[in-house]
Design a protein that fits this description.
The chain has helices at residues 9-26, 52-66, 86-89, 125-130, 171-174, 250-264, 307-312, 347-350; strands at residues 28-32, 76-77, 113-114, 120-122, 154-156, 180-185, 197-200, 206-210, 226-230, 273-275, 295-296, 302-304, 332-334, 356-357, 359-361, 376-377, 383-388. With 402 residues, the chain is α+β, with helices and mostly antiparallel strands. A hairpin with a 5-residue loop joins strand 3 and strand 4 (120-122).
Length: 402
């Protein structure tokens, strides 16, 4: 008997395609500009001679149009001045956050946002500002990674961690190349993406550009892969002094700590976890010997495609999610390791709190993810990076978060 659904199949497929296209059009996008300039926005070629926030928005819209992004003329820069906060601007509004952006109640419905390479940044503006950020905004208007020059890429914001303007750090309303401005780091998440340090207004900086307003929800995360996390606990570089070390020392203590934390969190095969650490004899990357399988954080975001990515710094997201799901910032993780796996200061093989060690900044992605600008006293506290070295994948029924 002929299936009665066949006659309706083209209509069903057309409806599904239309719904998919609508959903895709509803996705909000954000990017960092490929162009750079100083704090006088009128001096940027793409501003059309306009200064201030209007010039910044003109820059964003010019880049969005050049990349054929949808709704290109709606993009706004993540910038604040004395009258308008970035928080309000990404809602498509003006005014100050403290004054509810001119509304009777504070708007809270902007986002979520995708990068221009299709990967998700955060589920909402609240998550973005609270540090629950999946990936850094380090792709330009065309979805390309920023060129690596050995340093973090500075992005002008003039905005604090809550989305409010930071008075006196906005180059006189983005009209001068003298004075000071606040910047964030394009490779960073968890607060530091938009609120990091101050530079002179003559510095060469980029802009963040956001499609304002609410969009469709992000899909579930990627699971069923090897897991990786940052320990919620921290301690000195003498790893044998940590309670979870259970009488071991050195690299063995690091592994014992990771396995104890993984077991307490109910993670898959906790016995396979190892600490990403080097000592005087072993490179951190050489300690992971199983087949090259991807790692994901516990929020379902892919960290790295394989072991080669650890060595080359092709890290897709910071490893700043702990075993309990907390997004960490402002702390370090002991590594004793340079980006390529070469050993650096390692607290005398992780046994001496009186020595020196190296710790990475946990909310940086990309080639600088294991960077340590200088050695630190091993008596100070830092967390550990813990990665599974399992030789199998597991399935949990979730789809991949793009």
């Amino acid at each position: 008997m002929r299936n009665p659904w066949i006659r309706y199949l083209p209509i069903v497929l057309l409806a599904c395609a239309s719904a998919q296209a609508t959903a895709q059009a509803d996705a909000r996008r954000a990017f960092v500009t490929s162009a750079k300039g100083n704090g006088d926005l009128a001096s940027w070629a793409e501003s059309g001679g306009q200064g201030g926030l209007a010039g910044a928005d003109a820059v964003c819209r010019s880049h969005a149009r050049a990349a054929n992004l949808p709704d290109a003329d709606a993009f706004v820069a993540w910038l604040s001045d004395a009258n308008d906060d970035a928080y309000c601007r990404v809602h498509g509004l003006t005014g100050r956050r403290d004054a509810h952006c001119g509304l009777t109640e504070l708007p809270t419905d902007a986002g979520p946002w995708q990068r221009t390479d299709g990967l998700w940044i955060a589920d909402s503006l609240a998550d973005l500002l609270d540090g629950r950020m999946y990936r850094p905004i380090d792709r330009d208007e065309s979805g390309r990674a920023l060129p690596f020059n050995g340093y973090l890429q500075a992005v002008a914001t003039g905005t604090d961690a809550s989305g409010r303007g930071a008075g006196g750090f906005d180059c006189a309303g983005w009209t001068r190349s003298s004075g000071d401005l606040l910047v964030g780091g394009a490779e960073m998440t968890t607060g530091s993406w938009g609120f990091g340090t101050a530079l002179g207004c003559g510095a060469n900086v980029r802009l963040y550009c956001f499609q304002p307003g609410p969009g469709r929800a992000a899909p579930p995360g990627e699971h069923g892969r090897r897991q990786a996390f940052l320990t919620e606990a921290s301690g000195p570089g003498d790893l044998g002094s940590w309670p979870e070390a259970l009488g071991t020392s050195g690299l063995a203590a690091g592994d014992a700590i990771c396995r104890a934390r993984a077991a307490a969190a109910g993670l898959y095969r906790p016995d396979t976890f190892k600490a990403l650490l080097s000592d005087g004899r072993t490179s951190a990357h050489e300690r992971f010997s199983q087949p090259d399988l991807p790692w994901v954080r516990l929020d379902g975001v892919r960290l790295a495609d394989d072991a080669a990515a650890l060595r080359t710094g092709a890290i897709l997201a910071p490893l700043n999610v702990t075993e309990s799901g907390t997004y960490a910032a402002g702390i370090g993780a002991w590594t004793g390791t340079y980006v390529d796996g070469a050993a650096m200061e390692h607290c005398d093989d992780w046994t001496d709190a009186g020595a020196l060690g190296r710790a990475a900044t946990v909310n940086i992605a990309g080639p600088l993810w294991m960077r340590s600008s200088s050695p630190r006293a091993c008596a100070t506290r830092a967390a550990l990076y813990c990665l599974s070295d399992a030789d199998t994948l597991f399935h949990s029924g979730f789809d991949e978060r793009p």
